[in-house]
Design goal:
The protein is α+β, with helices and mostly antiparallel strands. Helices cover 27% and strands 28% of the residues. The chain has 7 helices and 9 strands, in the order H-H-H-E-E-H-E-H-E-E-H-E-E-H-E-E.
């Protein structure tokens, strides 16, 4: 472990390793925050932050009055891990994926942008060509999130690797900044609910009839550099892992 890792990260990594090696199994209750404090693991705020990080990464769930338990592959994490949160975790820990998390169905291709809203967000004309990158994140082999990256074609000048599904040596925004001298910054993260498409439900492994309407949560962030919008990132969250508010 790097010596510069903050104390809360060290605690979180130690518990994550114990979950991975089976010391704590799905359904097991973890020691309380105060128990770890009394054992000398750290201050209350430090241990609490470690548990918050583990919950955000989908490993545990803390319920008032019931304590903190380890989640299994079939459990739904309470927190929805967005693209921005994934980037924060990658930069903080060097890990792109949480334990038991994988991604499949990676695609990277040029395609015409037929969505007027995406075209407007990217500042291009409808049916102009964009780069589309997509993948499906899974937890314990259960698809949880469909990630879509719709990228302005000007990014290809600095990042021809965008059309390759293989992992890049660095996070693409950092690589772009190194090669162009232009910083990529995120806009506000927006969320909305809509009905799932048949293709989306198929990727989630869900079946529906022609009369079914199943909502999905869509979280969107627009990334820009000094020349304007560069990328629209959307995370489409599996039905059942979030709950729409009552009107």
């Amino acid at each position: 472990m790097p010596p510069t890792s903050p104390k809360w990260r060290q605690i979180a990594d130690e518990i994550a390793a114990q979950i991975t090696d089976g010391t704590y199994a799905p359904g097991d209750r973890l020691p309380s925050v105060q128990t770890l404090v009394s054992e000398g693991k750290g201050a209350t705020a430090t241990v609490h932050r470690a548990y918050q990080a583990l919950e955000a990464e989908g490993l545990i769930r803390t319920t008032q009055g019931s304590g903190t338990t380890v989640l299994g592959p079939d459990d739904n994490p309470r927190a929805v891990l967005t693209g921005a949160a994934r980037l924060e975790r990658l930069r903080r820990t060097g890990r792109a994926l949480a334990p038991q998390e994988r991604y499949v169905n990676s695609r990277a291709l040029r395609r015409s942008c037929a969505d007027p809203e995406i075209a407007q967000l990217l500042g291009i004309d409808l049916y102009d060509e964009i780069v589309l990158r997509s993948r499906t994140f899974t937890q314990g082999n259960k698809p949880t999130t469909l990630a879509l990256n719709m990228i302005h074609p000007r990014a290809l000048t600095a990042l021809p690797e965008l059309l390759d599904t293989a992992p890049m040596p660095k996070w693409r925004h950092d690589l772009y900044a190194e090669r162009t001298g232009k910083t990529v910054s995120p806009g506000p993260e927006l969320s909305t609910a809509r009905w799932a498409s048949t293709d989306e439900l198929e990727q989630f492994g869900l079946e529906m009839t022609a009369d079914d309407h199943i909502p999905v949560l869509v979280m969107r962030t627009v990334y820009s550099d000094e020349d304007g919008p560069l990328e629209v990132w959307e995370d489409i969250v599996r039905p059942g892992t979030w709950h729409p508010r009552n009107a």
